[in-house]
Each structure stands twice: as structure tokens, then as C-alpha cells.
């Protein structure tokens, strides 16, 4: 799928009109300024990873970058309003500080555990005061809520960036699953945050509405991909929500086994199990088809 001038125009609108701004923007998203310049001119494509980094740095969504709206119909389900981060572009240094605090808190929660992270720890890691943290996040519970919302945004941006150009629903489903495997790094940290949200939601009913708003986006993305595959004739005719329930439960269970170090479990074995399930139970002509 060709990149449009609209995409390049939107990226340009995120770069302040001041000397050195394009160089700073390129450094922030992790690419050479020359590559950014070529992408803005249309002689080079933005990679999916670059689109995600642009969206993360600028406080927008990849859906907005590609389609002009956070709510535009795309290949994945759109997050419910309650599951979206409170951060927004255009607020200057305040937005930048809040983003830095949230990213730092998110990393601490993912690596240390929610109950081992104090506001003072976040302040120390950010090089600021506890008062500044409380200004942006009045309570520790709000920090966890925003960490969950960040998980939702990261997954949404990654999926739109990677999947929008894949027309075949079977290929898209396989890629969608691949994008959620708990590989080392960012994805494993996302899973770590999810595990802690699951635990807190089980113990604290007040968290459940936000949790389900967040999880439903993932569930609905699988379901819409399966429905699309049925329309294309590549997936068998079964209730999409029923098969999504089975597939999502398998993903959750296998992911927990990987994160908790169950003997014999690994990202590679998880991938094999999930692809086998898709081939046997979803693909038209699979082994389990009557």
C-alpha cells in the first residue's frame, strides 16, 4: 500500500517550525535525519517501527497518521474512549514531562512489579520531585491505570502500522499473533504489565471496567480479522466470537507459561502451538474441519 502525501503532511505538522527541529525529531524517533528527510519527500517509506515511534513521541496514534482520525475504520478495533491515554499532542513541555514520567513508571512496573514501585521511586528515576509526579498522577492507582492505557496504545499503534497493508486475513491473523508474543524487550514488558493488571482486577472490582475496555479491543481485533477471513473464504464458517474466545484464551495461557518460566515453554513453542491451532481450527480446510 503506497504512502500518501496526507501521511507526510501529518508528520510534518508534528515537527516544530524552528531551526534544528527536524534533526531533533529524527533523533527522538531513532532514525538518521537524512532518512527522515527522504521519507518526508516521498522517496523513502516510513517503516512500521518508525510510525510507532512517531506516534509515541508526538502523542498521536498511527491511525491518525495513516487515516487522519483516531477513530477511523482500520484493520484493528479502535480503543474505547476510557482505554485511551489522557496525554494529547500540542501541550508543549507539560505533555513531554507527563510522557517521560509515564514511560519511566511503566518500565519500573514492568520490571519491578506494581507493589514494589513507589511514587518516590518514579520521582528518583525521573530526576524530579514526588510533587511533580503527583501533579500528573494524583494516586499510585492512577499510575497503574495509565500504564494499562499505554499498553493499549502501544498494541494499537503497532498493529495498525504492521497490519494495514496486509489484505489476506490469514496472513494478517498470523502476523497479529506474532506481534503479541512475549519476546524479550518491549513485548515482554507489556505482558508483565498485563499480568499485574489481571491480578489487581481480580482483587479490586473498581479496576475491572477499565480492564475490560482495554482487553475488549484485543478481543474484537481478533474477531474482526476472523470475520474478514470468512468473507474472503480463507476461514471456515464458525461463530467468530466463539473461536476468538478459544484463541485468546490459548494466547493468554501460553503467554503466562512463558513469563512464569514453565519448563519447556518458550516464545518459539508458543508460536508453534498458536499456528497449529489456527491451521486446525480456523483455516478453511484445516484438519479439524468436519
From TrEMBL:
<feature type="domain" description="HTH tetR-type">
    <location>
        <begin position="95"/>
        <end position="155"/>
    </location>
</feature>
<feature type="domain" description="HTH cro/C1-type">
    <location>
        <begin position="22"/>
        <end position="65"/>
    </location>
</feature>
<keyword id="KW-0805">Transcription regulation</keyword>
<keyword id="KW-0238">DNA-binding</keyword>
<feature type="DNA-binding region" description="H-T-H motif">
    <location>
        <begin position="118"/>
        <end position="137"/>
    </location>
</feature>
<dbReference type="InterPro" id="IPR009057">
    <property type="entry name" value="Homeodomain-like_sf"/>
</dbReference>
<dbReference type="Pfam" id="PF00440">
    <property type="entry name" value="TetR_N"/>
</dbReference>
<protein>
    <submittedName>
        <fullName>TetR family transcriptional regulator</fullName>
    </submittedName>
</protein>
<keyword id="KW-0804">Transcription</keyword>
<dbReference type="Pfam" id="PF13977">
    <property type="entry name" value="TetR_C_6"/>
</dbReference>
<dbReference type="InterPro" id="IPR001647">
    <property type="entry name" value="HTH_TetR"/>
</dbReference>
<dbReference type="InterPro" id="IPR001387">
    <property type="entry name" value="Cro/C1-type_HTH"/>
</dbReference>
<dbReference type="InterPro" id="IPR050109">
    <property type="entry name" value="HTH-type_TetR-like_transc_reg"/>
</dbReference>
<dbReference type="InterPro" id="IPR010982">
    <property type="entry name" value="Lambda_DNA-bd_dom_sf"/>
</dbReference>
<dbReference type="InterPro" id="IPR036271">
    <property type="entry name" value="Tet_transcr_reg_TetR-rel_C_sf"/>
</dbReference>
<keyword id="KW-0678">Repressor</keyword>
<dbReference type="InterPro" id="IPR039538">
    <property type="entry name" value="BetI_C"/>
</dbReference>
